[in-house]
Amino acid sequence: MRTLAWAAFILGSMVFILPLFGMTEFSLSMRRGVYSLDAYASVLADPQFRATFMYSVVMALFTIAFGVLLVVPTAYWVRLRMPELRPVIEFITLLPLVIPAIVIVFGYIRLYNTSSFLPLTGSTTGTNILLMFGYATLALPYMYRAVDTGLRTIDVATLTEAAQSLGAGWGTILGRIILPNVLVAVLSGAFLTFAIVLGEFTMAALLNRPAFGPYLQIVGANKAYEPAALAVIAFGLTWACMALIQLVTRFQKHTRVAR
Amino acid sequence: MSQPNPVLRRLPLRWLGVAPFFAFAFLFLILPALYIVVGAFRAPDGSLTFDNVLGLNTRTIRNAYWVSIRVSFWSAILGCSIGFAMAAAVVFGGLPKAVRSPLLTFSGVASNFAGVPLAFAFIATIGPAGLITLWLRTEFGINLRAYGFNLFSSTGLIVTYLFFQVPLMILIITPALDGLKREWREAAEVLGATGPQYWRMVALPILFPSLLGTFALLFANSFGAVATAFALAGPQLNIAPILLFSQIRGDVLGSPGLGYALAFGMIVITGAANAIYIWLRARSERWLK
Fold first, then answer.
1. Hey, is the C-beta of A240 within 8 angstroms of any chain B C-beta?
2. CA distances (Å), origin B33, targets A250, B231, B249
3. What Cα–Cα distance (Å) separates residue B190 from each residue in A203, B182, B206?
4. Sign of CA dihedral B109, A97, B242, A210
5. C-alpha gyration radius of chain B
6. Residue B250, Cβ neighbours under 10 Å: how many?
7. Which of A106, A138, A216, A244 would best serve as a mutation to test chain B binding (most B beta carbons within 10 A)?
8. How far is CA B111 from CA B51, B97, B220, in A?
9. What pLDDT was estimated at residue B1?
């Protein structure tokens, strides 16, 4: 039984280990015969890399800000006043997992083109905003779940009443009472959003924005060793985001024990 | 001073709190999808028609859907089997406790490592000049190509998708396996059941909704994936999402109505798979609390 378990575990692990090993080895072998960081140097020296990477980082930050502004008040309000709406909202937040991203962006292109009621694709800023809305949609299932789970751990009604009896308005309640209390949950949603936006390809490519995902695809089609180096970098970034999620979650547990 | 009617006043104000969310979801999630669905049944002059959907019945499009369904099916089957074996090994197999938590953490990372970089990792490993391809050829004289393996084909796609399918399966099925109560096994043993009998008559029937539901989720997951396939094989690979991608970029199908129908077909397939998943998950939660 135990031998069988080890065999299953080790054989299964090959699915993960071999590609990771392969891409790392390949990314180091640009110079013949010796391992070197040439591929990384070449990637980092590419101004396109920096430009597209920065574009995606900025888009990710805007998406996170927008997502927090949209999701936190909604989840709060549903918990406080409209619990009967929970199944509906949960269903809506699951929809981006059901409808493929390519279909959503196809709808955007047809709905918000220059001759429509909201001609977002007509200008660069408009397209950037549309892309940010698209990213926010893709991140919605994760963001909403994270915030909703965070709200479950605090007593929303009591906190609200206490704040109101001290004379706080809605803005103060949300910004200074609720948000700090669910900050850890918001952060874990934010890091996941960051990871999603950074690697996203379909929406950015079809809306013709100079994001990191389409850049990766172009490099992959034209170069040999650089793509492997980029894959290693991308994997490292995914790890960093997940590690940060783990870290903030653990941080929260410690504060709770200390209380 | 007359007080305003409290019911009248409270109702609309209460809804104001969720209005931004509904406005956003309607404009950027529901309306685009609806527009595609309606577009699939609309002729250029605006009248109702089934021509677009019937137009899907060409060789290229039938093939694209068929390849997509096959790739999704096999990557889901293999992902489920390998993921289940690994999760079972960790939960019941007597592996040291230290293995479990790293595996789950790693699965969390790997299931999020999809898209273009994933394709690069596989090209560097089992592509024509990849590490393993070369190693097999020089050390053992095995030429993968001669055995009919080509990474830039549907087989290659199935193998590549395993990288996120297996961890997703592990993440979803491990809690279900944890939910199998020790008492059930003991009760079965007391009644004289052998190990295989316990699995066949107790554990698998309880796990069945979870297994089938996760299979449906994995199926939908790979059916909608574009980026990895596009980076792996480029626009010439004939699967449904890439056909749609090329259609949006430049009218390869020649008719915009056909693009709507193509997207509509994708919504139908991923929607059905997800509906099965949600329904079966609700059923399995009854047992695995």
1. no
2. 39, 26, 18
3. 58, 12, 19
4. negative
5. 24
6. 7
7. A106
8. 39, 22, 14
9. 44
- pLDDT value of residue A259: 40
Residues of chain B numbered 28-47 and touching chain A (CB < 8 Å): 28-33, 35-36, 39
Interface test with A, best of B28, B37, B101 (most A CBs within 10 A): B28
Nearest to B163 among A5, A15, A242 (CB): A15
Q: For tokens 């068929």, name the residue.
A: B66
**Rounded Cα–Cα distance for residues A199 and A237 (Å):** 10
Q: Say yes or no for a CB contact (<8 Å) between B112 and A6.
A: no
State which H helix or E strand residue A191 sits in. Answer: helix A183-199
Shortest Cα distance from A201 to chain B (angstroms)? 6
> pLDDT tens track of chain B, all 289 residues?
455 555 555 567 778 888 999 999 999 999 999 999 998 998 878 788 888 888 888 888 899 999 999 999 999 999 999 999 999 999 888 788 888 888 988 898 888 888 899 999 999 998 888 888 888 888 887 777 777 778 888 888 999 999 999 999 999 999 888 888 888 888 988 998 888 888 888 888 888 888 999 999 999 989 988 899 989 888 878 899 998 988 888 766 667 788 899 999 999 999 999 889 888 888 877 766 5
Q: Mapping DSSP to helix (H, G, I), strand (E, B) and coil, where does residue B219 land?
A: helix
- pTM exceeding the 0.95 threshold for the entire prediction: no
Cβ proximity of B90 and B103 under 8 Å: yes
How far is the alpha carbon of A147 from chain B, nearest alpha carbon, in Å?
14
The alpha-helical segments, DSSP class H, found in B92-192 are 97-110, 116-126, 131-140, 154-179, 182-190
Q: With contact defined as beta carbons under 8 Å apart, do B274 and B218 qualify?
A: no
A 40-79 residues with CB < 8 A to B: 70-71, 73-74, 77-78
Q: Cβ of B231 and A192 within 8 Å?
A: no
Separation between Cα atoms, residue A225 and residue B147, nearest integer Å: 26
Q: Test A238 with B241 for CB contact under 8 angstroms.
A: no
Mutate to test the interface with A, among B9, B29, B65 (most CBs of A within 10 A): B29
Residue A140 Cα, gap to closest chain B Cα (Å): 10
Closest CA to A206 of A115, A100, A50: A100
